[in-house]
Amino acid sequence: MPINEWSDSIQVAELQNDPSFAEDMGLLAVYYQRCADDRKAGRADARTRDAVLDMRHVQFLNSSNIAQLLRVRKLAHLAGAQVRICSVSDRIWGILLATDLDGIFDFSEDVTTALAAVQMTRGK
Q: Tens-digit pLDDT profile for the chain (124 aa)?
């Protein structure tokens, strides 16, 4: 499975084109929904991992994929986690610019830089 636990606090999703993209984003949405519910219920033992979305293998995004990205971002935010997108091709970057998603998500050049940025943001 391309969603890997990089550490106790970060997971890396190596996204592919559909149908894998939809499946992986669905798994992330379920995970963050559960974490958001735990946080809302005040469960102190709840541990939420930040996410790095590695898009180096993604060659296209459709409206459903964009909706999934936004859903995961919203649920992660509710759960107290951050989402960072990395390794975006020029083609995908054009789609993100055209849909104004470049101002909503945080981006990094590659996975290593994304991991460092997430850790720095968390103060680790």
A: 488 889 889 999 999 998 999 999 999 999 999 999 998 888 766 678 999 999 999 999 999 999 999 999 999 999 999 999 999 999 999 999 999 999 999 999 999 999 999 999 886 5
Give the integer Cα–Cα distance in Å for 49 and 12.
10
Q: In what order do the strands lie in the sheet with 10-14?
A: 3-5, 10-14, 50-54, 83-86, 106-108
Nearest to 105 by CA among 85, 81, 80, 76: 85
In the chain, the domains with their CATH numbers are: 3-122 (3.30.750.24)
pTM: 0.92
